[in-house]
Specification:
The complex is a heterodimer. Chain A has helices at about 1-25, 25-55, 70-80, 80-115, 115-130, 140-145, 150-160, 170-185, 190-200, 205-210, 220-230, 230-245, 250-255, 270-280, 280-305; strands at about 55-60, 65. Chain A contains 15 helices and 2 strands. Chain A starts with a helix and ends in a 5-residue tail after the last helix. The radius of gyration of chain A is 25 Å and the shape is flat. Chain A has 2 domains: about 1-55, no CATH class; about 80-305, MetI-like (MetI-like fold, Orthogonal Bundle), CATH 1.10.3720.10. Chain B has helices spanning about 1-25, 30-60, 60-65, 80-90, 95-125, 135-145, 150-160, 170-175, 180-190, 195-200, 205-220, 220-235, 250-260, 265-295. The chains are: A mainly alpha, B mainly alpha. At the A-B interface, helix 1, helix 2, helix 4, helix 5 and helix 6 of A face helix 2, helix 5, helix 6, helix 7 and helix 8 of B.
Chain lengths: ~300, ~300
Amino acid sequence: MFSYIKKYFAMKKRDAIIAWKKAKVSKNCYIFLAPYAILFSMFFIFPVVASIYFSFTYYNILESPRWMGLGNYISLILEDDVFLIGIKNTLLIAVITGPLGYIMSFLFAWLINELPRWVRSVAVVVFYAPSIAGNCFVIFSVFFRGDAYGYVNAALINLGLIDTPKFFFTDPTYMLPICMLVILWMSLGTGFLSFVAGLQGVDKAQFEAGYMDGIKNRWQELWYITLPNMKPMLMFGAVMSITQAFGVCDVTMQLCGYPSTDYAARTIVTHLFDYGFSRFEMGYACAIATILFLMMILCNKAIQSILRRVGT
Amino acid sequence: MRVKIQGKASIHKDVYRKKLIKRRKPNRSIWGDIFLYIFLVFVAVVMVFPIVYAVNSALKPLDELFMFPPRIFAKNPTMDNFSDLFVTMGKSWVSFSRYLFNTVFITGVGTAGHLFIASMAAFVLAKYDFPGGQGFFKLVTVAMMFTGYVTQIPNYLLLNKLGWIDSYWAIIIPAFASPMGLFLMKQFMEGLPTSLIEAAKIDGANEFKVFFSIVMPNVKPAWMTLIIFSVQGLWNNRASTFIYSEEKKTLVYAMQQIQSGGIARTGQGAAVLVVLMVVPIAIFIFSESQILETMASSGLKD
């Protein structure tokens, strides 16, 4: 038994020596990495670690944090009903808008890629415009206004489908679907643009080789040539859509109000915002952030393993 | 004479037709193409409609803005809202040009530094295998998923220790290390053939030379995309958490102050929405044309 442990440590030591030698050889790599690594640890890793630490404390920003162990997590999961609504809504939004938005981004980037040059430039601008436009989505509150003057209500009444105007942003049954619609409208963002740039980089010779080898239609070409070539961008797009899908709060807060009727449009981030910046319970807010963080990491792991199978 | 011209035209037409046929990929069905075009046009209209609406409300005179039911297109379009906006801006204590300078400075320096630092790191992470490299990259991907709301507090404490609160650096330096840029650049550089780098090495180039004259020119679409994201983020940065002095505030902040000025400023508010949209869209259109332009000449062949 003892000899095994000794052997294990000897092996570890040898690995470490090899790694050290390798590191010495690739000195230049570290020089390249250093500026980014230093700034990144300062402004991203340190704050994340600090926030996770705060999640185990009672911290109201004014007084110094007071350690309370798992207290925040326990009250979050066992006592906070609103948080559970938030989790439910966030998951619902993420499960529907995440994959749909991701697939839409790729689909449109791919379709646009086939167009002649000029049309393509215009099309990229048009599709990406909602994401640049910033707060432009508040316009949707005009379309879905809760009285008979709102476009959607007026249209539905004229068609005879409904006889009284629907309160789209105050009636819990309509809130989430409409928010999802708006999120989908804005979903051709970061991922879409990186797909557009990535598709441009696919080697044309591979397509020609594909015609020779008998690829019959665009779908086969997509699966066997385009997608495998796009894997790095697909990974990037996936991570971006996860962060966006789980981080929804702007749209629901601005369209459905804050707080919304019966908390029907509350998401995890809205809840976090409520505790962190309205009630100044930063420790509690950090606990919410940590739970969200864990959910996103799990989701990312799952998606990465799916993406590995693409093109096989 | 006439015959000659006709002949020329028909030859021209023939060449054109040939070109058209050549460009079409052989494995595409025509009906599929037609269907897809119709579909794309339909979606494009849906996408762009709210933006057209926003631009039109900025052009509406005040009485049309409050009209019920609201119209989509302005009946008598005016530029009054815009001129009112600039009159209001001109009356503020800090001049308009100062706000503009602040935003341009933060956006410019932040984007340039981010591009440089992140691409350097991305290059070694994508193309070299060294201890700790993969681990560091995993850390970056994971750190992207922590929400920005709660990290503001530790960030503030840190910036305070460094003495950067109430200076441009509080916005600029953290922007250098934004994880998204690194991630994007790394993913694109992975597609670069390693043989290209090895060839340059054999010809006697060191890492720096390889980076500046081989790698960077070849991933131009990637860094154009990065510039778009970075400019968009920094331009819309309100900088209200870390900067207090009015003369160091950004344009977006000043504009939003006007926008929140109540019902009397509805017209100006609509104009603000458009003014803030214009610059990112302009930069986007410029760099986007560059993305599509450069691909043909990138010379990436194994």
